[in-house]
Amino acid sequence: MPIQTSFNPKGRNELKHAISVAEYRVLRSKLLHFMRRDSNAGANGKYLIRSTYFDNFDNKILNEKKEGYLNRDKYRVRIYGKNDAVVNLERKSKRNNLTFKSKCEMTREEFEKMRIGDIHWMEKDQRALMRDLLFEIQNHQIKPKTVVDYEREAFMYPYGNVRVTFDIKVQSSLQNTDMFNKHLPMVDVLEPNLVILEVKYDEYLPDVIKYLLQLTDTRQEAYSKYQLSRMYG
After folding, report:
1. pTM metric for this prediction
2. What gap in Å lies between CA 42 and CA 204, rounded to an integer?
């Protein structure tokens, strides 16, 4: 039984924008000269992320995001490349303007139990994050709600612990949560001419990165992949 857990106690700043494909290509060419690629990426510099997000019958998580709650939590189970080699339970928390992330390893079998409402085993689980999720399941009736796929290209810069990512081909399973099905039917939820840019950093964003990321075609509202995935229900 894996019990490894990680938590970032400091919190990070996070900016999200939608940019055009043309703008993405320009930014990408600039960043390649100053930032290093994510070592987990494939030969083309990208990797596939699949996440199952939790919510309840009243769309508590979705509505808190839409209404801009300053303090909110979002739970998801995440895998890479549509396989079960790495399965993580993650919680992304907003506290005022900072983002906190916690995660712990879990198994495919544990997720499948959650899908069918088998949660009794969670009561004695030693992972704090798993017990926190159990509390949310019992008190707010959250459960696996939808699967979201996207391709990510990531760049890192050591000063300020900066991470810049570009997400494309965002797709949703609507309300099918069979996330380990490699042939799970998915629908596109992001306009084909758009790319989601995310910039994450600790206390400060270095001037060189600020300069590189001067954008001319940004949509200033925050883009949530979970919110996009719920466009059709």
Report:
1. 0.91
2. 29
